[in-house]
Amino acid sequence: MVLSFFTKSSGGLEHVVSKAVGMLGDARHSFDLATLALLTDTDVAAVDADIRETDQRINHTEQELRSELVVHVTVQGSTDIGSVLGMILLIKKIERIGDQAKNVLDLAQSGVDLAHEPDTAEMLAERGIISTLFGEAAELLADPDDARLDDISRRGGALLDKHQAKIEEYLHSDRPGREVVPRAIYYRFLKRIVANLLGIVRTANEPLPTVDYLDDGETDTDD
Predict the structure, then answer these.
(1) Does residue 219 have a pLDDT over 60?
(2) Cα–Cα 20 to 30 A to 87, which of 46, 102, 137, 196?
(3) Which residue pairs from 81-88 have beta carbons closer than 8 angstroms and sit at least 24 positions apart in sequence?
(4) How many domains does the chain have?
């Protein structure tokens, strides 16, 4: 288990996990604001600075932790290399989620407005489910547990299947492009966000070679 090394480390690296959990909280904050800007009457300009400042904070923390982990390997040698590489991969996935939240914001800033639509309530409910998944992933990072991992993986996998079905539905829809294209793009962003959340919790719990793969390495979840 990747995080077992950091949470039990005698080298003082427990705070790496703590900072990764903080990064995930920041990513959740950006996701919540960006989706509100797209799906409600929230003023896009009012949340722009907050999301971009939060993204910068995530980026700086990622760079700081990567440097620290590299130094750790340099000093300690190759004994911990698998755990360190897993942790670097994990924090990179959190950084990607911050970028994907910005993509949702960019969609709203381009003029897409999905508030007050027939499917707005459904999209808001799904937004809430994904936001809760952020919190569950953070809890799992702080306190790894196989049973909770299996539950999150099952529910997250179902979300990925739903998002892909939505994308395909919009790609083959007879509705006007101005209606289906923004929705297809939005669900693509959601799919990447959920895939990275699953990658985060699996990285914390799985051997490095099989991270992002299912079915004994046959199915790539990070395409």
Answers:
(1) no
(2) 102
(3) 82/2, 82/207, 82/208, 83/2, 83/5, 83/6, 85/208, 86/2, 86/203, 86/204, 86/208, 86/211, 87/2, 87/3, 87/6, 87/16, 87/20, 87/203
(4) 1
The 3-state DSSP class for residue 158 equals helix
Report which secondary-structure segment, H or E, holds 219: strand 219-220
Q: Which helix (H) or strand (E) holds 214?
A: strand 213-214
Which one has a higher pLDDT value, 213 or 150?
A: 150
**75: containing domain:** 2-220
In angstroms, the CA 68 to CA 61 distance is 10
CATH number, domain containing residue 128: 1.20.58
Helix ranges, 40-119 (H): 44-76, 81-109
Cα 58 to chain centroid distance, Å, stands at: 12
